Structure formats: C-alpha cells, structure tokens
Amino acid sequence: MRVLLTGLPIQSHLIPALVPVAKALQHRGHEVALATGAAVKAQIERHGIEVLVIESALSPEDVDQPTRQWCPELTGPLDVPVFSDEMTESFAADLIEVAKAWRPDVIVRETNEYGGYLAAEVLGLPLAMIDIAPLITRLVPDLTDRLNHLRESFGLAAVDSFTHAHGRLTAGLLPESWYPSDLRSPGLRHYRAPDAVDTRPLDSTIAHLPADVPLVLASYGTSTHWLLGADSKLMHITVEALGSLEIQAVVALGTEEAVGRWNGPRPRNVHLVSFVQQRMLVGACDVFLTHGGFSGVRESLSAGTPMVALPLFADQPSNASRVEELGLGLRTDVSGIAADVRRVLAEPGYRLGARGFQRQILGLPPLSSFAVDLETLGAAGSCVGSA
Question: What residue ranges define each of the domains in the chain, with the CATH number in brackets?
Fold first, then answer.
C-alpha cells in the first residue's frame, strides 16, 4: 500500500503524530511519503521519510505577520486565521499534481490541512485523518460553506457538513472524554501516541534541582517567540510570577538568543533555558504551565501532570477551557499565573484528575494500530465515506 500523508509545514503538526504513523506504516512494509512545505523537509527526512515538497505550502515564519507587535499581556489571546481558502486551494492544486505522479492508494491528512481532503475527492482516493487539533473547527463557524466553495472550484458537489473532510477513519490522540459530544464522529477511533524517545540525558542542572519543593515547567511552544512583539513582557511576567512561589521552576524561552539577551528578573528559583526535553521532563513535574497547544496538553495528560494553561492563539483558548472543564487544571491569564499555579499545587483534585486521565490514555491501543486500521481502509479502495 502506498500512503500519502499531508500536513502543514509546522514542526508541532508533524513530528509528534504524522512521523510516528509514517514509521509504523513503513514497519509494516508500506511505502510512505509526506507532502508538506519545504521549511520542514530536512527535519522529516532525518526520520527516514520521503518528503514531497508542496511549493505553495508556507510555514508561519514565511508568511508576513503584521501581528508581531502583539503583546498578549495587554490584548489577550491573538485572533489568528486558522483556515485560509487561498492557501488551501493552492495546496490542493499542487498536491493533485504531486499525487498523480506518486500514485498513492490512500491519503491521510492532519486536521489543519484541507488540501489533502480536496485532492482525495478529486482523485477518488480513500481518506483518513490524524486529529491533532480536535477543537479547532469551532473557530471556523462557516467552515462547511467555505469548503463547499472550494469544492465547487474543483468541480465537486456540495456536502452537508465539514465533517465529510474527516474521511472514513479519524485517529484521535486523546480518549473520547476529551471530545465534546458534538465532535464525536462515527469514524473516530482513539489511540495512544508514542512516549518520548530521547537518548540525550536531561541537563544536569535540572536533573539535580532540589526535591523538597514542587517543580513547575513553563513553556509556551515553538511558535511563540516569533509572534511576540519586541515590547512584550510575557516572559518577564511569567518568570516573576513563578519566582514569587515556593517552588523550583524551569522556563523555556525558545531560543539561545532569547536566553543571551534576557534582561528580565532572575529569581534564584527560576532556571532559564532555550530548550527543554518537554516530553521527557513533564512527567517529573508537579504542574505544567503551558500555552495550551494540543501537543503540549496531550503530553502533559499522558504523563499525568496537571496544567495551568495561558492560551495565546488558535485553538489554545478552547483547549485551555477544556482542561478546566474536565478538572485537569486551570485556564489563566497573565495576571493570574502565580495564583493559579499555587491553587493547582494546593488542591489534590487536579493531580488526581490528571492521573485518572492518564489511565484512560494508557487504556488506548498504540498509535501504531492506526496503521493496521488504515490497511482496511486502503483495501476497500473506495472514495471518502459520508460523515
């Protein structure tokens, strides 16, 4: 079976989920390629996966961002577009030509990339989806209409719901309880993403932090450093808030440059790093202070660690609210960081909730099982099923 994966050229969209699926398919003897933008080509190829470059697929860093003077401590979460009709149409058009040459038997897209959906429909191929952002469709209330407009441009008939784009098989990366009832589609199955595999030892400074107080890990993701405006004091506020608590804290600033030019507070109990092995360390922490990106939320829950989520953009506000609704932590803002971290540390219900959710995750089949389920879809050789 020849499987074509499609995804936006964003590391956090590809490495945690699409790459493990690609490796599982390769292990079962299938041919696999990933269609995405040139920005992540080298990263993906290091995993032994063929990359088919979609020239029109731009990474966030390649797109002009007039919002880079954004200061979340003043404006709150950033309202960024999460669906682009123009980019989706270009991706689909380029992908159709690439797919004609590569000749896949099935297409598997990630949630945010809709060109794969349109290409599968045009080429009459089975479609599946890896759900890396379960709540993001709520940010595009007119998504069905916009998809139908694109379908019309490719000569496709209209559909009744955007869930048609989920295909016949959807890989959810958290248990069903994460999904609100209106987002539980018939083709949705749930899998456990693989644990961290990192042969590097943890930084010795972090490894030997005192164990007589709680440890808090703070990271706002891989994209935040290029979104923040020069006047933003978000990281300063974060460090100061954590410094006021009786804890040890590790704060990831995102780049070596950010660490080198740091001119903010330096409390003795807060350790500034450019990068941290988040998937490895989060399980050894008492609270994870996060921006609420889905990958970070999933990693924290897989480790049984409660969260304080300070959402910054895209689906993060929805994820942060869901964390709070399920009793897995708190949604916060810049003024509430210290108080909310203190509360999650003090109230055992959050830790118990996260541990209980971790057990639900451990009860799921491994993500490698998605490769087996995909074989059934590929063997059927039919077009996308109705939602």
Answer: 2-192+364-380 (3.40.50.2000), 204-362 (3.40.50.2000)
